[in-house]
Amino acid sequence: ELSLEVRGLAFAYPDGTQALFGVDASIARGERVALLGPNGAGKTTFVLHLNGILAGGSGSVKVAGLPVDPKDKKSLREIRRRVGVVFQDPDDQLFMPTVREDVAFGPANLGMRGPELEARVTAALERVGMGHVADRAPQHLSFGQRRRVAVATVLAMEPEILVLDEPSSNLDPASRRELAEILLDLDVTILMVTHDLPYAAQLCPRSMIMSGGVIAADGKTRDLLADP
Ligand code: ADP
Ligand code: ADP
């Protein structure tokens, strides 16, 4: 079963910049994949197509078999639930008075209430080891803790695929290690955009290297990183 299936995805920005030139990629359920490549390669543009934030080019994207179609507002809601994006800056993701409310926000927005919602929030916070800060204000946590809470806000949606943008950036060695252990323990499909090759090697058995708007290489991380 595929979590993600992308076929012939091409896209140009309104100013005419062609950012994607026919991207093909399949990710099976439960895989952890690093998306590597130089600045300007098209990684961000690619990722923004996975949940329909960008659209209008050619080709197709399917998440667990469901086509991403930005014109279909109802299916787009489901796609946004299935594709959980953890931004590079956790402060773009945390805006409620307490950690608990931030993690509850997504599922509550889907109509979840009461004990079911509470259980969902508790489970998500426990998966990132942040249950003990549930009632604190996000801005009083360390950066590493905020990033883990940002991951919990996304896990609370029980996504099909977890997309992380530079998850190791700005972390001290201890936080970096803790986050790696957390991500390795999750049984969710992971696509991780990163420039951190050791992190990619540690977490992702498979890597895709993007260059010039296409997937230039795709294979075992240890083979790709051994042979530059
Ligand atoms: P990466 O994430 O790998 O650094 P991007 O997807 O950000 O690559 O960029 C791919 C290409 O698209 C680059 O040439 C970049 O300059 C261009 N680009 C990105 N965003 C925009 C935009 N909003 N308008 C026009 N061109 C853009
Ligand atoms: P990242 O490091 O995540 O790949 P970038 O540095 O490529 O991000 O881009 C940062 C922001 O600038 C993004 O919102 C992107 O869409 C925008 N951007 C990048 N290149 C261009 C461009 N040529 N014209 C307009 N916006 C751009």
Draw up the topology in text:
Layout: E1 2-12, E2 18-28, E3 32-36, H1 43-50, E4 58-63, E5 66-67, H2 73-82, E6 83-86, H3 99-109, H4 114-127, H5 143-155, E7 161-165, H6 173-185, E8 189-193, H7 197-203, E9 206-211, E10 214-220, H8 221-226
Parallel strand pairs: 3-8, 3-9, 6-7, 7-8
Antiparallel strand pairs: 1-2, 1-4, 4-5, 9-10
The protein binds adenosine-5'-diphosphate (ADP) (2 copies).
Residues 13, 15, 17, 19, 37, 39-45 line the site of one adenosine-5'-diphosphate.
Structure report:
The chain has 228 residues and is of the alpha/beta class. The protein is built from eight helices and ten strands. Strands 6-7-8-3-9-10 form a six-stranded mixed beta sheet, with helices on both faces. Strands 2-1-4-5 form a four-stranded antiparallel beta sheet, covered by helices on one side. Strand 1 and strand 2 form a beta hairpin. The two termini are 31 Å apart. One adenosine-5'-diphosphate (ADP) binds next to helix 1. The site of one adenosine-5'-diphosphate has 4 residues, from helix 1.
Write the H/E string, N to C: EEEHEEHEHHHEHEHEEH
Number of strands: 10
The mean pLDDT is 96
Count of helical stretches: 8
- Judging from the principal axes of the Cα atoms, what is the shape? globular
Strand content: 25-35%
Side by side, the strands of the main sheet go: 6-7-8-3-9-10
Biggest β-sheet strands, sense, barrel:
6 strands, mixed
Distance between the termini: 31 Å
Indicate the radius of gyration in whole angstroms: 17 Å
- State the helicity in percent bands: 25-40%
Low-confidence stretches: none
Which class do the helix and strand fractions yield? alpha/beta
Give the distinct bound molecules: adenosine-5'-diphosphate
